[in-house]
Each structure stands twice: as structure tokens, then as C-alpha cells.
Amino acid sequence: MVCGGFACSKNCLCALNLLYTLVSLLLIGIAAWGIGFGLISSLRVVGVVIAVGIFLFLIALVGLIGAVKHHQVLLFFYMIILLLVFIVQFSVSCACLALNQEQQGQLLEVGWNNTASARNDIQRNLNCCGFRSFNPNDTCQASCVKSGHPCSLCAPIIGKYAGEVLRFVGGIGLFFSFTEILGVWLTYRYRNQKDPRANPSAFL
């Protein structure tokens, strides 16, 4: 049977949703690993990663059940949700790739000022204190403070990696956004195909 038939569409859709399931479990595992090894103490960051992983897992589960059972309602909702996720993810990915250095610095400074626990993690892991300036009266958990050595500012250190990280995140986001639009197309085709094992007079 050539690809594009009922069985091929079903198998491709199942494989795509299994990929999403693995990615969702990987996200949840990374968040748990970060908490377990003390790399991340920000419950907000961990909560967002776990929420994204659970959301992706539920989408994949709906798509997988709909594909296996050829369930029209599940496939319709799966297609709509996947299309909305594609629009959001494609927009965010393009924004990550389009940010210049000045915009990256402004974005990092906003994040720095609004997440105290993540700020402490960065200072501890990168051995730096303060973003663009450091007040000696402020709390800093970097090892340079404990040893009495002068501490570097965090902005230049973060800036070295910010561009690479944003390009990586944008590239990964674009890749998965194209798999999502592929999923929408497969779901649309699969919903309008007849199951050869069903009653020939019924259009499921």
C-alpha cells in the first residue's frame, strides 16, 4: 500500500504521537533531575517545564487514542489544539531567532529582576554576583563571596551563552512546529479516509 492510504496515515500519526510522548517524558524527567541534583531551586521554572511536559503528554495521548480508534471527535479536537500550538510555538521560535544583543540583554534583565530563586541558582552555578552591578549588602551564594575573591558580574557571563541558547531553542522550536503542522495535515487526511476493515457503506 502506498503512503497516503489509511494504514500509512494511521501509522505515521501513531509514530508522531509516540515521539511527542517521549519528548514530554523527557521534559518531566529533566525537571525532576534538576530538582534532585540541586541545579534548579526555582519552583516556578520547574513548574512551567513540568506543566509543558504534562500538556504535551495529554495532547499526544488524545492523538494516539484518536488514531488507533479512528475517533472523529478526538481527531478533530487534536487537530485544532495542534494547530493552535503550532501558531504559538512558531511565533515564539521566530522571536527567539530574531532577537538582537540589545533585546536579549533587556529580556535577561527583566527575567533577572523578577525571579529571585532562579537568580540565586545562576549566581551559584556561574560563580558571579549581580547582573550589571553588585551591592555588597545584597545576598549572593556564589563561591567567590565565601572565599573572599572578587566576583564577576553575571551579565557578561550570561551574555556569552544567551545568543547560543536562544538560537538553539528557536531551532528546536521551529523543528517541532513543522512536525505539528505535519500532524495537522496527517490528521485531516486520516479523518476523511475510510477504514477498509469497516462496513464499506459507512464513512467513519
TrEMBL record:
Q: What is the topology of this protein in the membrane according to its UniProt annotation?
A: Multi-pass membrane protein
The signal peptide, as residue positions, is: none
Task: Write out the entry's keywords from A to Z.
Answer: Membrane, Transmembrane, Transmembrane helix
The record's Pfam families line, in alphabetical order, gives: Tetraspanin (PF00335)
Record-linked InterPro entries? Tetraspanin/Peripherin
Where does the protein principally reside? membrane
* Membrane spanning stretches: 12-40, 46-68, 75-100, 168-188
Q: Where in the cell is it found?
A: Membrane
> Is the keyword Glycoprotein assigned to this protein?
no
Keyword Transmembrane helix present in the record's keywords: the answer is yes
Q: PANTHER family this protein is in?
A: TETRASPANIN, TETRASPANIN-13
- Name assigned to this protein: Tetraspanin-13
- Gene behind this chain? TSPAN13
